[in-house]
Amino acid sequence: MSVSIYAEASPNPESMKFVLNQNLLVDGVSVDYPNLEAAANSPLAQELFGFDYVGRVFIAQNFVTVTKNQPELGWTQLIPELRQFLKSYVEAGGPIFLVDPAAEQKAAQAATAGDPSQQEGQIAQKVIDLLDNYVRPAVEQDGGNITFKSYHEGIVTVNLQGSCSGCPSATVTLKSGIENLLKRMVPEVQSVVAEGIMV
Question: Could you tell me which residue ranges the Scaffold protein Nfu/NifU N-terminal domain spans (predicted)?
């Protein structure tokens, strides 16, 4: 199958989203690799880290967000090279992952879920539903992802991935957008904090 790819700017000037006409992952699953060592499960991400200007790789359902670590390099010269690499790699049937990230994430969530009180568990489920239905689609449009980490005593902890992790507007989005939505819809929520913001 012929692969077509287009590049889409994200709110983070150092990140570019490469959208493919085929799926790399099932909907709702994504992986964020802040460095080569973290990318052990993804031959595709490892290859991308072979470009010396690639500082972070995020893979979601049908796109790859590349964050560059050399601000002086303009995207105009990098986009054709990355787009051609991704097209050739996917068309050749190169492996995206060694182990299915969906299975990996389920196991990790089960391990970190702990034993919250029943009430906290119900609140956490409401928060997860809101994030999945209202927040994640918007964040994915910008080349990133948000995942629920925990809820404890009014504080929601989330993970920001992909272009969100280094985005100058991530904190504003988190506080004025996500936190306001959750407080309005789930009165028990007092604040939202994020892991993965590197501003």
Answer: 5-93
Please, are residues 13 and 69 in contact by the beta-carbon 8 Å criterion?
Answer: no
Q: What is the arithmetic mean of pLDDT over 143-147?
A: 82
pLDDT at 122: 86
Is the Cβ–Cβ distance between 76 and 82 less than 8 Å?
no
Query: Is 35 in contact with 67 (CB distance < 8 Å)?
Result: no
> Which is nearest to 66 in space by CA: 21, 99, 18, 111?
18
Which tokens sit at 55? 């500082």
Of residues 158, 156, 152, the one with CA closest to residue 136: 158
Confirm if 76 and 68 have CB atoms less than 8 A apart: no
Q: Which residues contact 174 (CB under 8 A, 6 or more apart)?
A: 158, 160, 192, 194, 197
Sheet holding 155-162, edge to edge: 144-152, 155-162, 191-195
The pTM assigned to this predicted structure is 0.69
Name 176's Cβ contacts closer than 8 Å, sequence gap at least 6: none
User: Residues 11, 163: contact at Cβ < 8 Å?
Assistant: yes
Instruction: Spell out the residues 6+ positions from residue 20 whose beta carbon is closer than 8 angstroms to its own.
Output: 3, 4, 5, 62, 63, 64, 86, 90
pLDDT per residue as tens digits for the range 104-143:
666 555 555 555 577 788 888 888 888 888 888 888 887 8
